[in-house]
Design goal:
This protein is α/β, with parallel strands linked by helices. The protein is built from six helices and eleven strands.
Length: 209
């Protein structure tokens, strides 16, 4: 799979990249203010920013409004209007260092995206083992993460027996109080911290997030 770099750069910067593009592990897409829209960034893995172009207030505003996609800042000089960035590299640079920086940004971003799940108005961070909403959070166990993820992904109420089998790997005749106890404790913490009594909903046929 080819990774795409979107570049905000001066003419000289873009020309220098063109000279080495055959040695890069990525395809290059260049900023054009006549045709730019956020939809262009849909298939972009990393945004590359030439520090010298940050002196353009219009471009700076565009860069600072890019979310989700990591930004690698190439520093050539100190500028007064510095843009935001995820990582940076000084120019001139070794090609191996440049390729590694971008690869690491892509890998880290994909890992973080896979580790964070948006559930209703919450974020479940599987790395930190936390359920978050606004500036509040509670710690959750590995088993609670599996439980919440299962109930959310199924999109329909699940019986206690199914939950036992999928989360605890219990047989059909196992004691279902395990599920009730875990859900009761989890609901209690969520209610106490977030004042939300409807995160896990109870139906006749089972539980649903």
């Amino acid at each position: 799979m080819i990774n795409n770099l979107f570049i905000f750069g001066t003419k000289n910067f873009n020309n220098s990249l063109n000279e080495i593009k055959e040695y890069l592990d990525f395809s290059l897409m260049y900023f054009d203010d006549k045709f730019f829209s956020k939809t262009i960034l849909a298939n972009v893995n990393v945004v590359l920013v030439d520090s010298e172009i940050c002196s353009d207030s219009k471009v700076l505003n565009l860069i600072n409004n890019i979310n989700i996609i990591p930004l690698l800042l190439v520093e050539k000089s100190v500028v007064s209007n510095i843009c935001k960035y995820s990582d940076r590299i000084s120019s001139p640079f070794f090609l191996s260092d440049f390729n590694n920086k971008i690869t690491n940004l892509i890998t880290t971003t994909k890992f973080n995206q896979n580790s964070s799940i948006r559930i209703k108005n919450y974020i479940m961070d599987k790395n930190e083992k936390k359920l978050k909403k606004n500036n509040l959070s509670i710690s959750v166990t590995e088993r609670e993460i599996q439980l919440i993820e299962l109930l959310y992904n199924e999109k329909k109420p699940l019986s206690k027996k199914i939950i036992l089998k999928k989360v605890w790997n219990y047989s059909d005749d196992a004691d279902t109080h395990t599920v009730e106890t875990h859900i009761y404790r989890l609901r209690k913490r969520i209610l106490s911290k977030f004042k939300d009594g409807n995160f896990i909903i109870n139906f006749k046929t089972g539980y649903l997030v």
